[in-house]
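Hi, here's the filled form for the chain we discussed.

Project: internal
Contact: R.S.
Residues: 136
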Amino acid sequence: MESTSKLGRILIVEDDALVALSMEGALIDAGAAEVEICHTTDAALAALRSARPDVIVLDVHLADRDDGWAVAELVGGLGPKPPGIVFSTGAPERIPPEIAALGPVLVKPYEPAALVRAVREQHPRGLLSRFRLIAR
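And the returned structure, exactly as it came back:
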C-alpha cells in the first residue's frame, strides 16, 4: 500500500462485521503485527484490560451503546504512552469536540488507504521515524 513500516497491534472497535473485516484486511496488508476486532463496548474494554494495542480504530456509535467515545476517554488512563486513537464514524458531528480532538476522525465511507494513513500517523514511533515524518 504505502510503506512497509509495521503498524503494531491494532484494536478495531466496530459493530458492522463487514466493515470490521475490510479494515482488518487493509491493516494487515499494510503491516499490522496483529489486529483484534471487538463488536461491542464491553468487548473493547475487556480487550484493553488484557493487552494494550498501539492504536485503536473506534466506531463511536456502536449497536450496544451510542457513546463509544467512552472508550477513547478511558484510553488516556492507560499509562504514560496510551494507544493512539482513530475515530471511524458516519456521524462526526455527534462526537463531542473535546473527544474528537483525541485523534483523526474518518467519515464513513472512506478508502482503506485513508485508514492506513491515519493509523500510521497515530502509531508510536521511534525518534528516527518521527524525524522522517517531520521531514515529509
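Let me know if anything looks off before we file it.
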